[in-house]
Amino acid sequence: MLQCTAFSELPEMGARVALMGLEGRPGAAPEAPDLDEFLLCELGAHEEAIEHAAQLWSASARAGRDLWMFWTDADERRKFRFKELLPCPAVIHRLSVKKGEACVLYDRHPGAHSWDVTDPLADLMAERIREEVRRDRDGGGGPGARAEGA
């Protein structure tokens, strides 16, 4: 399943207020996380009626909750809310019973678990980087390559 492509500008003041209200929150200003200016929905592609969601902050394992921002674009107006949620308990074991991949979404999220959601932009960027590395390794003379004898 492809990742939802919705993105939103982060309402920074609302996010900072939500962070201050967290149990086990980052303490003094130096511990406060750097917040991205824009957030991308982390869910798999979904219906318009389902809220978009992006994780803002991951608590320590001891605190066990993460801060998520949810938004909708209803009535030509974007509506935000912040909520502290437990992480999804799902784990997939592909080749080993001892090692597994945990879902990085929140508990009871709609749709597919994170390991079934693919980000086509990240895949495209990774492929371009692999191509550049191959060209450099093979002496491929791509953009920025110097002419021989120069």
Task: Strand order, main sheet: write it out.
Answer: 3-4-5
Could you say which overall geometry the principal axes of the C-alpha atoms support? globular
As a percent range, the share of strand residues is 15-25%
Give me the Rg, rounded.
20 Å
Order of helices and strands: EHEEEEEEH
What is the count of helical runs?
Answer: 2
Q: Uncertain segments of ≥5 residues (pLDDT<50)?
A: 145-150
- What's the main sheet like? 3 strands, antiparallel
Roughly how much helix do the residues carry, as a percent range? 10-25%
- Helix/strand-derived class? alpha+beta
Overall mean pLDDT stands at 82
Q: Count the strands?
A: 7
Structure description:
The protein has helices at 12-20, 120-137, and strands spanning 7-9, 38-40, 52-58, 66-74, 77-85, 91-92, 101-102. The protein has 2 helices and 7 strands, in the order βαββββββα. The longest helix is centred in the last third of the chain and has 18 residues, at 120-137. The strands form 3 sheets. Strands 3-4-5 form a 3-stranded antiparallel beta sheet, covered by helices on one side. It has a two-stranded antiparallel ribbon with strand order 1-2. It has a two-stranded antiparallel ribbon with strand order 6-7. The protein is of the alpha+beta class and 150 residues long.
Features:
150 residues; alpha+beta; 2 helices; disordered C terminus
Topology:
Layout: E1 7-9, H1 12-20, E2 38-40, E3 52-58, E4 66-74, E5 77-85, E6 91-92, E7 101-102, H2 120-137
Antiparallel strand pairs: 1-2, 3-4, 4-5, 6-7
